[in-house]
Amino acid sequence: MGDQISEVMGRLRREDFLPDDQKRFADLDEPLPIGWGQTSSQPRTVAAMLRLLDVLPGMRVLDVGAGSGWTTALLATLVGAEGQVVGVELVPQLRVRATAALGRLHLDQARVELAERGVLGWPVDAPYDRVLVSAQARSLPTPLVEQLAEQGAMVVPVRGRMTRVARQAGGEVAVSEHGSYRFVPLLDW
């Protein structure tokens, strides 16, 4: 899976999802500002999250904090034409930018929705096989765990620790931590 992630990240250039004033920094392995207090996560972190998420072709994936749409596009490429990716973004201008980028790439299996006030994630299309959260939560976001299908998995930074949540058959949840990371905060309404 690691080689596939590297290949996909090599094909979907980060610069295509950045504002013009940040494009020249696209190859730096650091978070870059995309406006409205949000960032495009550093490539090494994105790769680590995608490896933990273990996305397979045909899966249904929720991308919380879609931002510029880069992770949504990466996920859409990993799920392939038979899969589906729903990105959710709070900032209307970022949603517009992400939607335009996905359109340019003809990734019809992906879309970015504007987050609804008082709702975390996108429960209307749940359950999801995988959930990626690109913002730091103060605690494990229960509403997102509830949107996971049986045998589903979520990767979310919680209090500075990259956390993988695996929903077992019968609804039991297994949680594991995978290193320290810094993210913008997960905004709740």
The helix tally amounts to 5
Radius of gyration: 15 Å
If you average the pLDDT, what whole number results? 91
Strand content: 25-35%
Low-confidence runs of at least 5 consecutive residues: none
Gap from first CA to last CA: 36 Å
Number of strands: 9
The percentage helix is 25-40%
Looking at the structure, what is the overall shape?
A: globular
Question: Could you describe the largest sheet, including whether it forms a barrel?
Answer: 7 strands, mixed
Strand order within the widest beta sheet: 5-4-3-6-7-8-9
Strand/helix succession:
HEEHEHEHEEHEEE
Structural class: alpha/beta
What's a quick, concise take on this entry?
By secondary structure, the chain is of the alpha/beta class. Helices cover 25% and strands 29% of the residues.
